[in-house]
Design goal:
- 7% of the residues lie in helices and 51% in strands.
- It contains one helix and 28 strands.
- The strands form seven sheets. Strands 1-28-27-26 form a four-stranded antiparallel β-sheet, with no helix packed on it. Strands 2-3-4-5 form a four-stranded antiparallel β-sheet, with no helix packed on it.
- It is globular.
Length: 343
Protein backbone atom coordinates (compact mmCIF):
# COMPACT_ATOMS: atom_id res chain seq x y z
CA UNK A 1 0.00 0.00 0.00
CA UNK A 2 2.83 2.35 0.80
CA UNK A 3 4.40 1.76 -2.62
CA UNK A 4 1.12 2.32 -4.44
CA UNK A 5 0.53 5.56 -2.56
CA UNK A 6 3.95 6.89 -3.57
CA UNK A 7 3.21 6.20 -7.23
CA UNK A 8 -0.20 7.87 -7.09
CA UNK A 9 1.22 10.96 -5.42
CA UNK A 10 4.13 11.40 -7.80
CA UNK A 11 2.36 10.57 -11.07
CA UNK A 12 0.63 13.99 -11.44
CA UNK A 13 3.91 15.75 -10.78
CA UNK A 14 5.60 13.57 -13.39
CA UNK A 15 2.90 14.29 -15.97
CA UNK A 16 3.14 18.01 -15.25
CA UNK A 17 6.91 17.96 -15.64
CA UNK A 18 6.57 16.24 -19.02
CA UNK A 19 3.78 18.51 -20.22
CA UNK A 20 5.36 21.86 -19.33
CA UNK A 21 8.20 21.77 -21.90
CA UNK A 22 5.68 20.80 -24.59
CA UNK A 23 3.33 23.63 -23.66
CA UNK A 24 6.23 26.09 -23.52
CA UNK A 25 7.32 25.52 -27.13
CA UNK A 26 6.65 28.76 -29.00
CA UNK A 27 4.37 28.89 -32.01
CA UNK A 28 4.26 31.88 -34.33
CA UNK A 29 1.03 33.28 -35.74
CA UNK A 30 -0.51 36.47 -37.12
CA UNK A 31 -1.67 38.48 -34.10
CA UNK A 32 -2.71 41.82 -35.59
CA UNK A 33 -3.16 43.67 -38.88
CA UNK A 34 -2.85 47.46 -38.97
CA UNK A 35 -4.31 49.17 -42.05
CA UNK A 36 -2.41 52.37 -42.84
CA UNK A 37 -3.16 53.07 -46.50
CA UNK A 38 -1.20 55.72 -48.37
CA UNK A 39 0.42 55.77 -51.79
CA UNK A 40 3.43 53.84 -52.99
CA UNK A 41 4.84 50.34 -52.92
CA UNK A 42 7.05 49.12 -50.10
CA UNK A 43 10.49 47.70 -49.53
CA UNK A 44 12.65 47.09 -46.45
CA UNK A 45 11.25 47.23 -42.92
CA UNK A 46 13.54 48.45 -40.12
CA UNK A 47 12.71 48.21 -36.41
CA UNK A 48 14.17 50.25 -33.56
CA UNK A 49 13.98 47.78 -30.67
CA UNK A 50 14.56 50.48 -28.04
CA UNK A 51 11.59 52.65 -29.05
CA UNK A 52 9.55 49.97 -30.89
CA UNK A 53 9.31 52.18 -33.96
CA UNK A 54 8.89 50.59 -37.40
CA UNK A 55 10.32 52.34 -40.47
CA UNK A 56 8.87 51.31 -43.85
CA UNK A 57 9.99 52.78 -47.18
CA UNK A 58 7.06 53.59 -49.51
CA UNK A 59 8.70 54.61 -52.83
CA UNK A 60 8.41 58.41 -52.49
CA UNK A 61 8.17 58.58 -48.71
CA UNK A 62 9.04 56.60 -45.57
CA UNK A 63 6.47 55.89 -42.87
CA UNK A 64 7.33 55.75 -39.17
CA UNK A 65 4.90 53.61 -37.15
CA UNK A 66 4.52 52.96 -33.44
CA UNK A 67 4.91 49.19 -33.27
CA UNK A 68 2.96 49.03 -30.00
CA UNK A 69 -0.13 51.01 -30.99
CA UNK A 70 0.01 50.95 -34.80
CA UNK A 71 -0.21 54.73 -34.86
CA UNK A 72 1.53 56.65 -37.65
CA UNK A 73 4.19 58.80 -35.97
CA UNK A 74 5.69 60.45 -39.02
CA UNK A 75 5.97 60.38 -42.79
CA UNK A 76 9.31 61.42 -44.28
CA UNK A 77 8.98 62.86 -47.81
CA UNK A 78 11.44 63.60 -50.61
CA UNK A 79 12.34 60.22 -52.13
CA UNK A 80 12.09 59.00 -55.70
CA UNK A 81 12.43 55.23 -55.19
CA UNK A 82 13.25 54.53 -51.56
CA UNK A 83 14.59 51.13 -50.52
CA UNK A 84 15.93 50.85 -46.98
CA UNK A 85 16.44 52.64 -43.68
CA UNK A 86 19.32 52.54 -41.20
CA UNK A 87 19.23 54.26 -37.81
CA UNK A 88 21.96 55.53 -35.50
CA UNK A 89 20.20 56.45 -32.22
CA UNK A 90 23.41 57.71 -30.57
CA UNK A 91 23.54 60.52 -33.14
CA UNK A 92 19.76 60.93 -33.43
CA UNK A 93 20.01 60.24 -37.15
CA UNK A 94 18.38 57.99 -39.72
CA UNK A 95 19.42 57.25 -43.31
CA UNK A 96 17.22 56.27 -46.27
CA UNK A 97 18.54 54.91 -49.58
CA UNK A 98 16.93 56.40 -52.68
CA UNK A 99 17.59 54.40 -55.81
CA UNK A 100 15.94 56.81 -58.22
CA UNK A 101 17.86 58.97 -60.69
CA UNK A 102 21.58 59.19 -59.96
CA UNK A 103 21.05 57.82 -56.44
CA UNK A 104 21.02 59.44 -53.01
CA UNK A 105 20.89 58.78 -49.29
CA UNK A 106 18.54 61.02 -47.33
CA UNK A 107 19.52 61.93 -43.75
CA UNK A 108 16.76 62.68 -41.23
CA UNK A 109 16.31 63.55 -37.57
CA UNK A 110 15.16 60.54 -35.53
CA UNK A 111 13.04 62.63 -33.15
CA UNK A 112 11.34 65.12 -35.46
CA UNK A 113 11.66 63.17 -38.76
CA UNK A 114 12.82 66.41 -40.40
CA UNK A 115 15.06 65.95 -43.44
CA UNK A 116 18.58 67.19 -42.66
CA UNK A 117 20.06 66.75 -46.11
CA UNK A 118 20.86 64.41 -48.98
CA UNK A 119 24.11 62.71 -49.96
CA UNK A 120 24.91 62.04 -53.60
CA UNK A 121 25.51 58.31 -54.02
CA UNK A 122 25.11 55.89 -56.95
CA UNK A 123 22.16 54.69 -59.06
CA UNK A 124 19.98 51.99 -57.52
CA UNK A 125 21.13 52.67 -53.96
CA UNK A 126 19.46 49.76 -52.18
CA UNK A 127 20.27 47.80 -49.01
CA UNK A 128 21.62 49.83 -46.08
CA UNK A 129 22.78 49.03 -42.52
CA UNK A 130 24.75 50.66 -39.72
CA UNK A 131 27.84 48.76 -38.52
CA UNK A 132 28.57 49.75 -34.95
CA UNK A 133 31.94 47.93 -34.89
CA UNK A 134 33.47 50.19 -37.55
CA UNK A 135 31.09 53.13 -36.98
CA UNK A 136 30.17 53.11 -40.66
CA UNK A 137 26.93 53.30 -42.59
CA UNK A 138 27.10 50.67 -45.33
CA UNK A 139 24.93 50.79 -48.45
CA UNK A 140 25.02 49.03 -51.80
CA UNK A 141 24.38 50.12 -55.37
CA UNK A 142 22.72 47.33 -57.33
CA UNK A 143 23.28 48.80 -60.78
CA UNK A 144 26.75 50.09 -59.92
CA UNK A 145 27.93 46.86 -58.27
CA UNK A 146 29.53 48.80 -55.41
CA UNK A 147 29.62 48.99 -51.62
CA UNK A 148 29.34 52.58 -50.36
CA UNK A 149 30.46 53.69 -46.88
CA UNK A 150 30.56 56.83 -44.77
CA UNK A 151 30.66 57.93 -41.14
CA UNK A 152 27.21 58.58 -39.66
CA UNK A 153 28.23 62.05 -38.43
CA UNK A 154 28.83 63.16 -42.03
CA UNK A 155 27.84 66.69 -43.03
CA UNK A 156 24.28 66.09 -44.33
CA UNK A 157 24.52 68.90 -46.90
CA UNK A 158 28.11 69.03 -48.13
CA UNK A 159 29.40 65.59 -47.10
CA UNK A 160 30.74 63.06 -49.59
CA UNK A 161 30.73 59.29 -49.31
CA UNK A 162 33.99 57.30 -49.28
CA UNK A 163 35.38 55.92 -52.57
CA UNK A 164 33.06 52.97 -53.38
CA UNK A 165 34.34 49.39 -53.25
CA UNK A 166 33.83 47.29 -56.39
CA UNK A 167 32.06 44.00 -55.61
CA UNK A 168 32.16 42.23 -58.98
CA UNK A 169 28.41 41.71 -59.16
CA UNK A 170 25.01 43.21 -58.39
CA UNK A 171 24.48 43.46 -54.62
CA UNK A 172 21.13 43.19 -52.87
CA UNK A 173 21.39 43.10 -49.07
CA UNK A 174 24.22 42.87 -46.57
CA UNK A 175 25.35 42.21 -43.01
CA UNK A 176 28.42 43.05 -40.93
CA UNK A 177 30.15 41.25 -38.07
CA UNK A 178 32.13 42.61 -35.11
CA UNK A 179 35.48 41.91 -36.78
CA UNK A 180 35.35 44.51 -39.53
CA UNK A 181 33.93 42.33 -42.29
CA UNK A 182 30.85 42.88 -44.42
CA UNK A 183 28.95 40.10 -46.20
CA UNK A 184 27.02 41.07 -49.31
CA UNK A 185 24.66 39.05 -51.51
CA UNK A 186 25.55 39.25 -55.22
CA UNK A 187 22.21 38.31 -56.71
CA UNK A 188 23.34 37.98 -60.33
CA UNK A 189 26.40 35.86 -59.48
CA UNK A 190 24.85 33.53 -56.86
CA UNK A 191 27.65 34.53 -54.50
CA UNK A 192 28.33 36.18 -51.16
CA UNK A 193 31.13 38.76 -51.34
CA UNK A 194 33.20 39.20 -48.20
CA UNK A 195 34.69 42.68 -47.74
CA UNK A 196 37.42 43.62 -45.28
CA UNK A 197 36.28 47.08 -44.22
CA UNK A 198 39.76 48.00 -42.96
CA UNK A 199 41.59 47.28 -46.23
CA UNK A 200 38.43 48.08 -48.26
CA UNK A 201 38.90 45.01 -50.45
CA UNK A 202 36.88 41.93 -51.36
CA UNK A 203 38.72 39.04 -49.71
CA UNK A 204 36.42 36.14 -50.67
CA UNK A 205 33.43 35.20 -52.83
CA UNK A 206 31.42 32.22 -51.60
CA UNK A 207 28.82 30.32 -53.68
CA UNK A 208 25.32 29.98 -52.23
CA UNK A 209 24.56 26.75 -54.15
CA UNK A 210 22.29 24.80 -53.88
CA UNK A 211 20.45 28.12 -53.51
CA UNK A 212 20.47 30.83 -56.16
CA UNK A 213 19.72 34.54 -56.65
CA UNK A 214 20.42 35.47 -52.99
CA UNK A 215 18.50 38.49 -51.69
CA UNK A 216 17.70 38.40 -47.96
CA UNK A 217 20.53 38.13 -45.43
CA UNK A 218 20.77 37.96 -41.64
CA UNK A 219 23.83 37.37 -39.47
CA UNK A 220 24.05 35.24 -36.32
CA UNK A 221 27.28 36.71 -35.00
CA UNK A 222 27.45 34.51 -31.94
CA UNK A 223 27.48 31.31 -33.98
CA UNK A 224 29.26 32.79 -37.02
CA UNK A 225 26.45 31.99 -39.44
CA UNK A 226 24.66 33.75 -42.29
CA UNK A 227 21.02 32.98 -43.09
CA UNK A 228 20.48 33.75 -46.76
CA UNK A 229 17.13 33.85 -48.57
CA UNK A 230 17.42 32.64 -52.18
CA UNK A 231 14.80 32.93 -54.92
CA UNK A 232 15.93 30.41 -57.54
CA UNK A 233 16.08 27.71 -56.29
CA UNK A 234 13.87 28.73 -53.35
CA UNK A 235 16.08 28.03 -50.35
CA UNK A 236 17.24 29.36 -47.05
CA UNK A 237 20.98 28.81 -47.00
CA UNK A 238 22.82 28.59 -43.68
CA UNK A 239 26.46 29.54 -44.32
CA UNK A 240 29.50 29.68 -42.03
CA UNK A 241 31.17 33.10 -41.91
CA UNK A 242 34.45 31.40 -41.08
CA UNK A 243 34.96 29.61 -44.39
CA UNK A 244 31.80 29.96 -46.50
CA UNK A 245 30.80 26.35 -45.94
CA UNK A 246 27.09 25.56 -46.41
CA UNK A 247 25.80 24.22 -43.10
CA UNK A 248 22.21 23.63 -44.25
CA UNK A 249 19.80 24.35 -47.11
CA UNK A 250 16.09 24.43 -46.39
CA UNK A 251 12.97 24.91 -48.53
CA UNK A 252 11.10 28.23 -48.38
CA UNK A 253 8.28 29.88 -50.32
CA UNK A 254 8.41 31.83 -53.56
CA UNK A 255 9.39 35.49 -53.75
CA UNK A 256 11.56 35.79 -50.65
CA UNK A 257 12.90 39.26 -49.94
CA UNK A 258 14.00 39.24 -46.31
CA UNK A 259 15.55 36.92 -43.75
CA UNK A 260 15.79 37.78 -40.06
CA UNK A 261 16.88 36.22 -36.76
CA UNK A 262 15.16 36.28 -33.38
CA UNK A 263 16.83 34.30 -30.63
CA UNK A 264 17.58 30.78 -31.81
CA UNK A 265 15.25 30.96 -34.82
CA UNK A 266 15.57 32.38 -38.33
CA UNK A 267 12.77 33.55 -40.64
CA UNK A 268 12.21 33.96 -44.37
CA UNK A 269 9.33 36.19 -45.53
CA UNK A 270 8.03 35.36 -49.00
CA UNK A 271 5.69 37.08 -51.42
CA UNK A 272 3.56 33.95 -51.82
CA UNK A 273 2.16 34.53 -48.32
CA UNK A 274 4.42 32.30 -46.27
CA UNK A 275 6.78 32.97 -43.38
CA UNK A 276 9.18 30.07 -42.89
CA UNK A 277 10.51 29.52 -39.37
CA UNK A 278 13.84 27.69 -39.07
CA UNK A 279 15.34 26.27 -35.89
CA UNK A 280 17.91 23.77 -34.73
CA UNK A 281 17.28 20.28 -33.40
CA UNK A 282 19.92 17.73 -32.47
CA UNK A 283 22.57 19.91 -34.07
CA UNK A 284 20.76 20.21 -37.41
CA UNK A 285 18.69 23.03 -38.84
CA UNK A 286 15.14 22.27 -39.90
CA UNK A 287 11.90 24.00 -40.85
CA UNK A 288 9.89 24.21 -37.64
CA UNK A 289 6.83 26.05 -38.92
CA UNK A 290 5.35 27.80 -41.95
CA UNK A 291 3.10 30.70 -40.97
CA UNK A 292 0.38 31.74 -43.43
CA UNK A 293 0.55 35.47 -44.10
CA UNK A 294 -1.15 37.73 -46.67
CA UNK A 295 0.21 37.57 -50.21
CA UNK A 296 2.89 40.14 -50.91
CA UNK A 297 4.29 40.14 -47.36
CA UNK A 298 7.85 39.67 -48.59
CA UNK A 299 9.72 42.16 -46.35
CA UNK A 300 9.90 42.27 -42.57
CA UNK A 301 11.55 43.67 -39.50
CA UNK A 302 11.90 42.04 -36.07
CA UNK A 303 11.64 43.67 -32.66
CA UNK A 304 13.87 41.34 -30.67
CA UNK A 305 12.82 42.92 -27.36
CA UNK A 306 9.15 41.99 -27.82
CA UNK A 307 9.63 39.05 -30.22
CA UNK A 308 7.32 40.67 -32.75
CA UNK A 309 7.71 40.42 -36.52
CA UNK A 310 6.36 43.24 -38.70
CA UNK A 311 5.58 42.47 -42.35
CA UNK A 312 4.58 45.01 -45.00
CA UNK A 313 2.01 44.30 -47.71
CA UNK A 314 -1.25 45.48 -49.29
CA UNK A 315 -4.28 43.99 -50.96
CA UNK A 316 -3.20 42.94 -54.45
CA UNK A 317 -4.76 43.09 -57.88
CA UNK A 318 -4.82 39.86 -59.94
CA UNK A 319 -1.52 39.30 -61.74
CA UNK A 320 -1.75 40.62 -65.30
CA UNK A 321 -0.01 38.93 -68.26
CA UNK A 322 3.64 39.89 -68.40
CA UNK A 323 3.71 41.26 -64.86
CA UNK A 324 6.39 40.01 -62.48
CA UNK A 325 4.52 41.20 -59.40
CA UNK A 326 0.83 42.01 -58.90
CA UNK A 327 -0.02 45.66 -58.32
CA UNK A 328 -1.32 46.81 -54.92
CA UNK A 329 -4.86 48.11 -54.68
CA UNK A 330 -4.91 51.83 -53.88
CA UNK A 331 -4.85 52.83 -50.22
CA UNK A 332 -4.75 49.25 -48.88
CA UNK A 333 -1.23 49.20 -47.41
CA UNK A 334 -0.98 47.35 -44.09
CA UNK A 335 1.44 46.11 -41.46
CA UNK A 336 0.93 42.49 -40.40
CA UNK A 337 2.22 41.53 -36.96
CA UNK A 338 3.36 37.99 -36.17
CA UNK A 339 4.02 37.00 -32.58
CA UNK A 340 4.57 34.02 -30.31
CA UNK A 341 2.08 31.98 -28.35
CA UNK A 342 1.96 28.60 -26.62
CA UNK A 343 1.97 25.48 -28.80
Amino acid sequence: MRIMRTVVLTLPAFLLAVALPILAQPKWDVTKTVHLGGDGGWDYVTVDRDTHRVFVTRSTHTMVIDGTTGKLLGDIPGQTRSHGTAIVPALNRGFITDGGGSGAILIFDLKTYAVLGKLATMPDSDGIIYDRATDLVLAVSGDGGKLMTFKPDIDPVNGKIDPPIDLGGSPEFLAADRDGKAYINLEDKDLVAVVDLKTRKVIARWPVAPGGHPVGMALDGRNHLLFIGCRNPQKMIVMSTEDGKIVADLPIGAGVDATKIDGAQAFASCGDGTLTVVGQKDGKYEVEQVVKTPNGARTMGVDSSTHTIYLATAELEPLAPGQRRPQPKPDTFMIVEVGQGPQ
